[in-house]
Fold each of these.
Amino acid sequence: MRVNLLNLDRSGLADFLTGIGEKPFRAGPLLRWMHLFGERDFSRMTDLSKALREKLPELAEIRPPELVSEEVSDDGTRKWLLEVGGGNRIETVFIPEDDRGTLCVSSQVGCTLACTFCSTGRQGFNRNLTSAEIVGQLWWANRALGRNPRGERIISNVVLMGMGEPLLNLDSVLPALRVMLDDFGYGLSRRRVTLSTSGLVPQLERLREACPVALAVSLHAPNDALRDRIVPINRKYPLAELLEACRRYIASAPRDYVTFEYVMLRGVNDTAAHARELLDLVRDVPCKFNLIPFNPFPDAGYERSTPTDIARFRDILAQAGLVVTVRKTRGDDISAACGQLAGEVVDRTRRSERLAAMSERGGG
Ligand code: SAH
Ligand code: SF4
């Protein structure tokens, strides 16, 4: 079988080249062709030796996931649907803003963690994505979007906030991150690549050691009793342990704070008392808050907090000196908002079946 070079970071490519009797330093030019220029055809990589150009097609390929469709929302948000085999489809979303362009990337087909307010979590889990499938999302988006008139890439930031829990797929996520950071890959700084996690403590330590990038943690509740209910992984890694891991992470991270994400669920976690409890909880952790108005999906069983409640919550945190942003809801019309990414998951965990017994199956 031919090796899919999109799975390899620079050192992986160097090993591959050595293995076929070539010079490892060709890894740089190869990366640049594949990622910077989005080239798939080895014969067009004109600065590689002719012998290498002829040898590569027999041994290797550059194969991103298959593109199924691309949608553009009224507000400029774009969504790509990609086929990853076996009836599974994943979604990637681009969100343009005045000063940056952010690509939201998926790391798994579905998710095993079953947060109760998350459409991906409702759909169950099929498998981890490969590095090629993770980087392949950026590959497609970069190819579609290209550069602005000043020659800068349109994609200035990447967030691992699509489908799946990236810390449960670190073996594939790490090489993908390295390609994003590589100057011959996507040339993003560590501060502009953010991994979002629901809070797996040992894996956070591994990320810190292997490839620290900016960190977002899905907090969503100010105490263990409530968090146990809505983010079930909390039963394994409760808040005290998670916050301690965040403090350790910051010591090696490219940013000197953690972003805490907090989904605003009406009447569940959005009262003034919750906000005050939250202030107490994060007192010793340098952090910013990103409040995410809940994005509904069919049979979610939750409602979005009212604008008044969100503003009150925000003000309590801000008055205590925290930096708080409220996430704008983007791409609603194409179901591209946070937590609405559904893709198509051929569930192997039977969660969707079990849930369907209770209510109709959810989906973005
Ligand atoms: N598994 C990771 C990353 C993917 S989810 C994590 O949980 O952090 C990205 C963010 O979207 C998380 O903060 C998640 O809690 C949030 N989210 C999930 N479902 C949502 C919904 N229906 N509305 C708003 N935000 C949601
Ligand atoms: Fe998985 Fe994140 Fe959704 Fe929780 S919020 S189910 S961890 S994707």
Note: The longest strand covers residues 89-96.
Amino acid sequence: MKNLLGGKGANLAEMCLLGLPVPAGFTITTECCTDYYENNCELPEGLMEQVWDGMRKAEQVMGTKYGDKDNCMLVSCRSGARSSMPGMMDTVLNIGLCSETIPGLIKKTDNPRFVYDSYRRLIMMYADVVMEKAEGIEPVDGVGIRKILDDVLDEYKESKSYKSDTELTSEDLQFLATEFKTIIKNKLGVEFPDDATKQLEGGIKAVFKSWNGKKAVAYRRIEGIPDDWGTAVNVQAMAFGNTGDGSATGVAFTRNPATGENLFYGEWLKNAQGEDVVAGIRTPNPLNDDTKNEQNKHLVSMQEDMPETYKELCEIRTILENNFRDMLDIEFTIQDGKLYMLQCRVGKRTGVAALTMAMDMFKEGRIDEKEVIRRVSPTQLDELLHPILDSKDEAKHTVVAKGLPAGPGGALGVIALTSEEAMRLQKAGIANVLVREETNPEDVEGMRAADGILTARGGMTSHAALVARGWGKCCIVGCEALQINMENKTVTIGEKTYKEGDILCLNGTKGLVYDEKVAMINATENPLFQEFMQIVDKYRTMGVRTNADTPEDTEQALKFGAEGIGLFRIEHMFYGKNSEAPLAILRKMILSGSTEERKKWLNELQVYIKQSVKGTMKVMNGKPVTFRLIDPPLHEFVPHTEDKVAQLAEELGIKVSELKDRIEGLKEVNPMMGLRGVRLGIIYPEISETQFRALFEAEAELRKEGNDPHLEIMVPLTVSVTELKHQKEICDRVHAEVESAMGAKINYLYGTMIEIPRATLVADEIATVADFFSFGTNDLTQMTFGFSRDDVNSIIGEYKEKKILPADPFQTLDQEGVGQLVKLGVERGRNTKPQLKVGVCGEHGGDPESVEFFFKAGMNYVSCSPFRLPLARLAAAQAAVGK
Ligand code: ADP
Ligand code: MG
Ligand code: MG
């Protein structure tokens, strides 16, 4: 029904069926709107006849007559699309007031003030919506007719020293109506139509036109709503909230949309029409005691002022919740003590509220477990896992810069321009934001120490972003407005310059930067969260693993429900805490002059690798851990500063110039497509050999110590089965050697990453050697698109804006392209080995939309960073129960 009648129309009809008091009316379908546009903006043939038929029926119900000089009915023309686009399209109220009908209505109601108040509202809205916007008139200097008339109204009130609209008398309003009409004639060159028939037709067309109004079009772009849906038009008899102090209008939520509490929550205004509350023209009063706060507690509530009507509204609240089994957002109007319902729709809510309401409604028996799972979106769940900026307070501050929302949540702290400073501040217990041009492995400690991270360059899969998300840390990357001057130690954003110690506040969920303190709230410690996740896991069928390389991260991941590690990057032991010793050896190994020398350093390195591997496998006891062989662009680990180069030359016992030559020899034009992954092990087999040995020894030792390790070895960047075979020979040999040396039986799986398009095409052959596949969707996306993920950021921004790409393919899997390769790889792999284990370890493993796709592609598991685990679990459960 929603598709045809729009959300508003369908729910108005539903409320009528529930026997609620809804003013009579009818809905013109969204199909008519589509026809209207296909038909060169002509109303479809026969539409107006049907409209007049509908009007006759509404008149019968209301006991009034449209355009009648003694007993006239007035109507509103209201927009309403399939999915809610709040405030984006237009509505006109009080249609049908003209010289014919005004005197009769005054006589009938004996309330000239009400009639002229309605009339001046009609003129204002009609001029704005029908005569200006729908005609496509671009206002001079951007000041539209609505603004001009509003200003006249304000000046008039000022001249009379009125504080509120309600003080305007009947004479004032009559005078203003005449003024308005003159201004309209002068500005727009046409008369305001003094004819009820014309007004109605104009109103209907204007609502159709508002589908293509600027706001509506922009909103559709953002929300991805198709242009050809069209809007319905609801023509509805008016209920008047502006007849005096016995009348009112209001908006309410059946439960608190911010906290989810089962308390009726709303605002109302006496002697007003609906638009006054929504547009914030007057400060509304609290609906009831539960809605009172510091700002409005002195204002009278509906509960106090109209207890009978309030009770009736409470009953309707129950009826609606019973029917829709969800929290609703409702609009109502009271005309001389009689209550009318004007709208209801499922209300928007925060993450906390979504969780609370879902669990409450489950306990109230309104919804079942599957529905509980559907009620909380992964984005809402994500909100719960991070401290966030208090949106109310945030609205009071000005955004100074924008970047990509890489790590969610909020952060507040003083600026630190170096990792050392961030660490110093953390030790001193001072919250800080690490601001960097970009981050590299040497910043890891600083990133750990920072409360938030802000970088001028980098994309969503940049190092900083990956790491930040892994820790659940607030992070904004690619903030191009930042100008960092390391010489003066300053950061410039536009006109303003900041130095270390100045405050910055980040909204990592939206990518917004503030230079003032914004209040924060913490939503994590919610016992409902645990209960909810239990239900989620009950229905989830696909496995969920984590990407982790340290015992600490692994422990965190276990708390968030990890069922194993899908990606342990061996090279991560060379970043961050305790990395100095192994990193020093790694450097020497990389810069060795001969194989003999390299083997010497590798032998030293093996001890560290074993140690690192054992630590994590021990924490993941009983659950699988996939170790990826070293996959670094080598240049990342080479010393960059003169003194470090000099020091290393001394340690290697060679001249500085000789070392510089070796470093030069490692330079690659495009390191991401150079000596990486399995290629490294083929050029230098001893590097793989060392890792195999460390892994097998770790497994054997752990088992001897009474643990239950599940070892999986994964070869990265494979393009051909011959590569895998080449490495497998080394692996088999080392396996046999370690087994006999340690007198132990060592079990392991030998698998590969699928991350280059060629690998998906020859997956059937690769599966003859591999026990499992893990799709590295970051590289697969990079290689399939030919996008360098570190450089293509701003281009992707433009592509999204120009609708060339629907989304950033590094964030959400490109299903029609990269996704097809994934499917192909799974299919071909399983043709060879039906039981082949298949997973995903790219960042997409934590993206809900992509998780659904992976579920459908038949993956055994997805693997993501620890803080994304609850999201991945929820997304997997939602995929399993269906939407
Ligand atoms: P939006 O979709 O922007 O909320 P609406 O069509 O709901 O626009 O109308 C704007 C305001 O006018 C709302 O507060 C609504 O309740 C009020 N309104 C609309 N139609 C009527 C009517 N027939 N009688 C009284 N108030 C109305
Ligand atoms: Mg509305
Ligand atoms: Mg990769």
Note: The chain has a mean pLDDT of 92.
